[in-house]
Design brief:
Blueprint lengths: L4 H19 L6 E5 L5 E6 L11 H12 L2 H6 L1 E6 L3 H10 L4 E5 L1 H10 L12 H4 L5 E2 L3 H18 L2
Parallel strand pairs: 3-4, 4-5
Antiparallel strand pairs: 1-2, 1-3
Helix pairs in contact: 1-7, 2-4
The structure holds zinc ion (ZN).
Zinc ion (ZN) binds next to helix 2 and helix 4.
Length: 162
């Protein structure tokens, strides 16, 4: 499935959340869960600055879905995210049986930028979602949002490695 205008609208909100995260001292990642009726049910953004490095929005979404949605609702939901899920979040998404994922930029793009900027590899390997959760429908990236996301990650890199 390719990206629709509705997909792009939700992804733009993820980018806004990512920007809010960066401006609050966290990392630029934001995500939403949208139900089968198209309603945004939950949104969050990265919150790692206080030391819990697992506070990724996609993991919060998977946890939230465990207590707020039925298995059918989870399967019919779509998770939008500014950056492709890391392996931890892909696994949580897969375990909870959530539906389609749509991302603005891929892990491969993020890794390529880090490499280009001379940053060290992260502690967890960047794998495509399909390597971890092979049955999840995945769409992205969104070229329309690439420049904005690259700029947010560049600002993070400049803060972390001045
Ligand atoms: Zn993650």
């Amino acid at each position: 499935m390719s990206l629709s205008e509705t997909d792009l609208t939700h992804l733009r909100r993820c980018v806004e959340l990512a920007r809010e995260g960066l401006e609050d001292g966290d990392e630029p990642f934001g995500s939403l869960l949208v139900d089968a009726r198209g309603e945004v049910r939950f949104e969050d953004r990265n919150r790692v600055k206080d030391g819990d490095e697992t506070r990724h929005p996609e993991l919060e979404i998977a946890r939230w879905s465990a207590t707020h949605l039925t298995a059918e609702e989870r399967a019919a939901a779509t998770v939008y995210t500014s950056g492709e899920h890391c392996p931890m979040c892909s696994a949580a998404h897969g375990w909870m049986g959530l539906g389609r994922i749509v991302y603005a930029v891929s892990s491969a793009q993020l890794s390529a930028w880090r490499h280009e900027w001379g940053l060290p590899e992260g502690p967890v390997r960047a794998l495509p979602i399909h390597e971890v959760a092979p049955r999840v429908a995945v769409d992205g990236p969104a070229p329309e949002l690439e420049a904005e996301m690259r700029d947010l990650h560049r600002r993070l890199a400049e803060q972390r490695y001045p």
